[in-house]
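ugh finaly. both done.
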Amino acid sequence: MKKQKRNLRRTTALILSMVMILSLIQGVGSMQTVHAEEPEKVFQSLSLAGSNGDETRIGTVTYKNQETEKITFTKWGNTSALPTEEGSYFLSDNVSIESTWNVPTGNVNLCLNGYGISMAKDYERVISVGENANLTIYDNNNNQLSHYVTLNNWRGTSVSDNGTEETVTDGSGVVKVEGGYITGGKAYSYPGISHGGGINVEKGSLTLNGGCIIGNSVVYPQGLSGSGGGGGGGVYVSDGTLVMNDGSICYNCTNNTLKTPGGGVKLTTNSTFTMNGGKICNNNSRCETYGGGGIDVQNSTFVMNDGIIGNNTSRSSGGGISSRGDVTMNGGEICSNSANYGGGVKITYGTFTMNGGSINDNTVSDLGGGIETMKTGRFVLNDGIISCNTAGRDGGGASFRSNEGVLPVIAGGQITDNVA
């Protein structure tokens, strides 16, 4: 009798174990079959029918998932002002303005159409996108127009349709631009005055589907004392949204040593920036605190899915990116940037999660050729490659100097062929 009871207990235990195992297998199976949500439509190209002489032209937008959308663009022929009402417009000539274009409330689609917008007056930004304003910039260079932008101390001071490229040294030279451009912005970086030399976004949204934001700067007025502020030589975003699908942000600068980080782009106050393509290149931050030659992220979120952040420089740290927020890199390339610390990326606060892409060929004079972390900054590597970076003192690939207990997470990917 006792033997039968023991056998019964054993049989019952075996059956329960099998049930538990089957439950686990089913659970794993269900986890494996979970599908991610379909990605949002990402811009791929714009085709603009008709000619510049037409009053309206039909634009066909093609997305990467091959869906298309039609937009009717209205001709904009004024060469000294920009639209004051929402709508869709294409430029039929270059535009030179003497005061900031305040984008009207609502949705504005602007196709540069191979032409450009220049700020003719000193100490004025080019474009301001305020609350409830949504600006989408396209370019359609069917005219195959090229322009030569002359830079003087990082500001585009003149543009010619004929010329010769000259190497940019210390922010001065001549750059050839294929297609449309936005240039000449020069903004004060002083509390209550200004920030964002090229485009300033505050509680609005900006989508870049083409064009080149070039030769814009943020400066600190001589003779004034204080801690500075602002930043964002090319684009400044505060409590707003930036999406970059194509185009470039290049040769912009925060042109002083105070608190003006983000030579190309500055994000602050819960802003979001999604980069699906395009280039952020050859920008410069002279800020001695946080730097960010290409991008400075402060209390904001940056997601990089594709594109290039390259050849940017910072006087202090974060040649490509300086972050005090949250950054996710799913693809793209952070390359050939330079700084004293964190040639590719500097993480001071928040988390930098790398799921793909590459961080390569960046250089520093001191620590962290590819990546440097400090304070509560955390680095998570799930996939991707960090290679061929160089540090003058230590950490060719990465230098982890965060507070005790804030450890990097290396779950995959590669850190290889770096030099210190």
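ok and the 2nd:
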Amino acid sequence: MPSYIIPYKPRKHQAQLHRKVKRFNVLPCHRRFGKSYFSLAETLKKCFECELPNPRYFIISATYSQVKKIHWDNLKFLTKNIKGTQYHETELRCDMVGGRRIQLLGADGSSVDSLRGIYADGVILDETQLLHRDLLNKVLRPALVDRHQMDKKSGWMIAIGTPSGHNFFYDLYMKNKSHKDWFVKKYTVEDTKIIPKDELGSLKSMMSPEEYATEFLCDFDAGVVGGIYTKSMQVVDDEKRVTTVPHIPELPVTTFSDIGFRDAFSIVFIQKVGSAIHVIDHLEHAGESIEYYANKLKEKPYTYDNHYAGHDIVVTELGSGKSRQEIASNLGWFIQPVLKLKIEEGINALRLSLKRCYFDKDKCDYLINCLKQYRWKKNALGEQTSTPHHGTESNSCDAMRYMATGLNESSDWSSKLNYGPSGIV
């Protein structure tokens, strides 16, 4: 195989990183680190080192538009000197000599689901803080197995991004520091020193301390800017209401679900104990059928009184001609839609509910982090809007919002109570 020279000269910190990567890598990096060029160059290097037939590599970001904007032009630029290279604009696919292929994918579409059952020689997770954990656990990690068995240099993964609180990226970073097959390292501006001090001083003066700590010091624990439930959850922590919350067999369990299509499907399990709300369990996955969740509910050791979900559960699906409520009902899972409120009203209702909530620290750890990370969306000018940002934390927060609505948590005591038929799985 002939050698190729690509138009990429790594900076000192990037060159060091190219030498240190292992099979699995978690790399929280500050803004302007050069993550996209590093990722593409590392992928191309491994692509032409691979001796297996038809190597396949995937670079994945949260959305199709994001991965295209960040990587597509750079990929074409870096591969322009490789003879015979073909570009497929719609599929964001780069086909090269010897059957080599690099493809860009957005986690918001069906393209990622198409990876189920096929192989990958290497995967880049870009802006990992915006991705859902099931993407790696259920889709990508199995895809890396076969090629690694054939060649120990294949079947690798790099998760790179900038911290944004405690989420999937944080879990990858914290849980894999001591594993021998993993290279886990944080790169702050103090480590790379690539941004001049006067520029950093200017950035500090323009940004809040939380923003600067997150974006340039890679601080996973910096407060979430524009957090919707930040103050409410701080009170929950201060009052030590994240604790061991056991299931009480004598009391019924009520569930509240946010039922997604390609998004995650989130279910919150609560028990009302006097005036307190015990959040005893939480279930969230992506890419599974309604039947999967109906069976999961049956496996739990709970006696249910009611099941609730968002009002869109009654909307008829184009494919089946049935609503998701009907599909669930046929499986013995009788779900009622909660009252439809404006999203701001639902958020205020949940803020009231959180004053009475106790969370099980083990079963609800992911849910708690989602509530802490939920934040307002920013517009193109960087200004905070009145619309919540849609991210991996949204589904769990929506399920909790439905809980507040279903329990009729409202400051308007004239609101109509909603009594629906009971359903027990």
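summary for the 2nd one i guess: The two ends are 60 Å apart (CA to CA).
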